[in-house]
């Protein structure tokens, strides 16, 4: 059986969406899967280098790897009225050139932040270190992502929601594309289609059996949050809308690409619809 290397983040939503494979609830007759967990910017950099067969990425990265990777429809995370948060110390005023910590150069929140705050002085840190960087005064502000948005120090407050920036830039009718999955184009098309089938099934099974899987993750100390925060977080980022992207979500991804191209983040325009794995091939082949 051919091995497929899958890289995902150690965040609760990514682990949740992959573990149905790890626990043997979903499998394939022709593929086996090995997984690696790392922070999202490290994964973005790995995708730029083409290290993994399947890699979790920030949607904002995709146009930079479109020639080497196709977009998967599954294991996606979108914000619906919520998302990353720009935080600062209470009772402070940010100057136009304030120093800010972001979680990575190619993250969706970094793209939207840099469009909204072109004069800010940006430094990049692991997302787990951003809150302390603001508290210590190393930076004036920081953008919190993942589970960090649920609970942060009382000395801090939200300056602005990245969701609000997205609404202003996108027109306000689309969900915020945050994280997705990319698949190496050099894989044989039948393997690519089977890979997407298995991963989609894993996300669907996880979502359908959320209570059972959540308990297993907590018992094994595989997530960084308690049961209540896990329930909230999965409700935000690992839900019915994570199983397979619909047309509205794909339009949102295209809008993100459009914004990035307009502001010089990408050398060329990329279309999300034409970047998907061509699953219709199997219908043509066996018709």
Descriptive report:
The protein has 2 domains: 2-78 and 176-285, 3-Layer(aba) Sandwich (D-Maltodextrin-Binding Protein, domain 2), CATH 3.40.190; 85-170, D-Maltodextrin-Binding Protein, domain 2, CATH 3.40.190. The chain starts with a strand and ends with a helix. The chain has helices at residues 12-22, 40-49, 108-116, 130-136, 162-170, 189-208, 210-219, 227-237, 247-262, 280-285, and strands spanning 2-8, 31-37, 54-58, 69-71, 77-79, 85-89, 99-102, 121-124, 141-144, 156-161, 176-184. The protein is built from 10 helices and 11 strands. The strands form 2 sheets. Strands 1, 2, 3, 4, 5 and 11 form a 6-stranded mixed sheet that branches. Strands 8-7-9-6-10 form a 5-stranded mixed sheet. α1 packs across α6 and α3 (108-116) crosses α5 (162-170). 38% of the residues lie in helices and 20% in strands. It is of the alpha/beta class.
List the helices and strands and how they pair.
Blueprint: E1 2-8, H1 12-22, E2 31-37, H2 40-49, E3 54-58, E4 69-71, E5 77-79, E6 85-89, E7 99-102, H3 108-116, E8 121-124, H4 130-136, E9 141-144, E10 156-161, H5 162-170, E11 176-184, H6 189-208, H7 210-219, H8 227-237, H9 247-262, H10 280-285
Parallel strand pairs: 1-2, 1-3, 7-8, 7-9
Antiparallel strand pairs: 3-11, 4-11, 5-11, 6-9, 6-10
Helix pairs in contact: 1-6, 3-5
Catalytic activity: cyclic dehypoxanthinylfutalosinate = 1,4-dihydroxy-6-naphthoate + dihydroxyacetone
Pathway: Quinol/quinone metabolism; menaquinone biosynthesis
Family: Belongs to the MqnA/MqnD family. MqnD subfamily.
């Amino acid at each position: 059986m051919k091995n497929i290397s899958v890289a995902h983040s150690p965040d609760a939503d990514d682990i949740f969406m992959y573990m149905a494979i790890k626990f043997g609830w979903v499998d394939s007759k022709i593929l086996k899967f090995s997984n690696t967990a790392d922070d999202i910017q490290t994964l973005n950099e790995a995708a730029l280098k083409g290290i993994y067969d399947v890699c979790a990425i920030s949607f904002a990265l995709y146009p930079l790897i479109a020639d080497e990777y196709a977009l998967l429809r599954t294991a996606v995370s979108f914000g619906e009225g919520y998302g990353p948060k720009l935080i600062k110390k209470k009772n402070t005023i940010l100057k136009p050139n304030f120093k800010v910590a972001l979680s990575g150069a190619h993250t969706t929140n970094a793209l939207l932040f840099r469009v909204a705050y072109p004069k800010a002085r940006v430094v990049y840190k692991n997302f787990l270190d951003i809150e302390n960087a603001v508290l210590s005064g190393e930076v004036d502000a920081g953008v919190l992502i993942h589970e960090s948005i649920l609970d942060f120090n009382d000395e801090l407050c939200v300056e602005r929601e990245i969701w609000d920036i997205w609404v202003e830039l996108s027109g306000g009718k689309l969900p915020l594309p945050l994280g997705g999955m990319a698949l190496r184009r050099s894989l044989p098309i039948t393997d690519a289609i089977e890979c997407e089938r298995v991963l989609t099934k894993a996300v669907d099974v996880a979502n359908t059996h959320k209570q059972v899987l959540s308990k297993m993750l907590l018992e094994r100390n595989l997530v960084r949050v308690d049961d209540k925060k896990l329930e909230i977080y999965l409700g935000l980022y690992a839900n019915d809308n994570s199983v397979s992207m619909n047309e509205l979500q794909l339009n949102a991804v295209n809008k993100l690409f459009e914004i990035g191209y307009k502001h010089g983040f990408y050398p060329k325009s990329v279309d999300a619809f034409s970047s998907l794995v061509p699953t219709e091939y199997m219908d043509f082949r066996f018709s």
